[in-house]
Amino acid sequence: MTNVGPFHQGELDVQKLTGEQEIASRLSELIQDSIPTKALDFIRQQSIIWIGTEGKDGFLWAFPLFGSPGFINPSKENLLEINSEDDFCIPGEWRSTLQRGKSIGCLAIDLATRRRLRINGFIREIRKNKLQIDIHESYPNCPKYIRKRELQGNPYFCEFAIDSSGKELNEQTKNIIDRSDTAFVVSSAVNRTDLSHRGGESGFIKHKLNNKILVPDYNGNSMFNTLGNFKINPQGGMVIVDFTQGYYLQISGKIDIIFDNEPSILDTGGTNRFWELDIHKWYLFHLKNNFEWIDLDFSPYNP
Fold first, then answer.
1. What pTM did the predictor assign?
2. Domain that holds residue 23
3. Where does residue 30 rank: exposed (0-12), middle (13-18), buried (19+ CB within 10 A)?
4. Residue 295 counted as domain residue
5. CA gyration radius for the chain?
């Protein structure tokens, strides 16, 4: 497996295919093995962090962790601690994915300011109310495609409940997809797991034949971390969020990347790229004590 700088062969292949090697090489200087000093306060101010890792079933799953500002603590340059005031009040299906030594992807994102930081690493320790992560990579992303939202209140305690699950989408899950403008995607390859954001206008993600999800790949940072991972390991997961009603639709399955999309199939913003997720399984969770989000403007970069 060839690595050039921070990129593995899958990322290099996609960069070459799209003709964006030079841009990716230049932006690779942003990737560090610790959290940048300028981002430390940003991390500590967040009350949500999005997590992605492999489940016991061998598939990838993404989900959020909530807490009071300060519950995410970069205690050392290359160590991230996530602390709960009591216990991580998350379903057992999520908790079981957090095991010592496993590769993990994290995303700290402030929807109100469209600022975000990706953090990839390995779980050093998991206890009742503490998760420690050894940082392997950390880098900021641009504000593109993020729907502005303001969180009202402090989600210091959140309790989830599972509503349903299945292998084929039903009317409720289809409606959530049709309304959604935000999703978080987990991919993994070469012993590195990554968690990224996907956004657009409401309904930018499509469903097909009850068991497939279509996600456009808009112009981004040219590094192709997600698509590069998919090229090597065609497994992926995502969580599609319904902020209004507090629903979280987790989906995991096999990925197929399409580089020559016909515009009539999906609006890709001119890239002609999208990826299709063949559903292995989905879970629909909701927050029993959902807190309020104020929806603001869509991203000006949306197609």
1. 0.95
2. 3-290
3. middle
4. no
5. 18
CA geometry: angle 190, 191, 194, nearest 5 deg = 95
118: closest CA among 229, 193, 20?
193
Q: What span, in angstroms and rounded, lies between the C-alpha atoms of 116 and 107?
A: 7
Amino acid at 226: T
Instruction: Count other C-beta atoms under 10 Å from residue 53's C-beta.
Output: 23
Q: What is the CATH number of the domain that holds 107?
A: 2.30.110.10
CA angle, 131 then 40 then 37, to 5°:
125
* Nearest CA-CA partner of 238 in 190, 290, 296, 180: 180
Determine the Cα–Cα distance for residues 95 and 194; give it in Å rounded to an integer.
18
pLDDT at 1: 53
- Does position 133 have pLDDT exceeding 80, yes or no? yes
Question: 32: which DSSP letter?
Answer: B
Is residue 94 a part of any domain in this protein?
yes
Return phi, psi of residue 230, to 5°. Answer: -60, -35
Q: What is the pLDDT of residue 3?
A: 56
- Would residue 151 count as lying in a domain? yes
Q: Does residue 71 form part of some domain?
A: yes
Q: How many CB atoms lie within 10 A of CB 280?
A: 18
Total domains in the fold of the chain: 1
C-alpha span between 118 and 116 (Å, rounded): 7
The per-residue pLDDT for range 137-154, each reduced to its tens digit, is 999 999 999 999 998 877
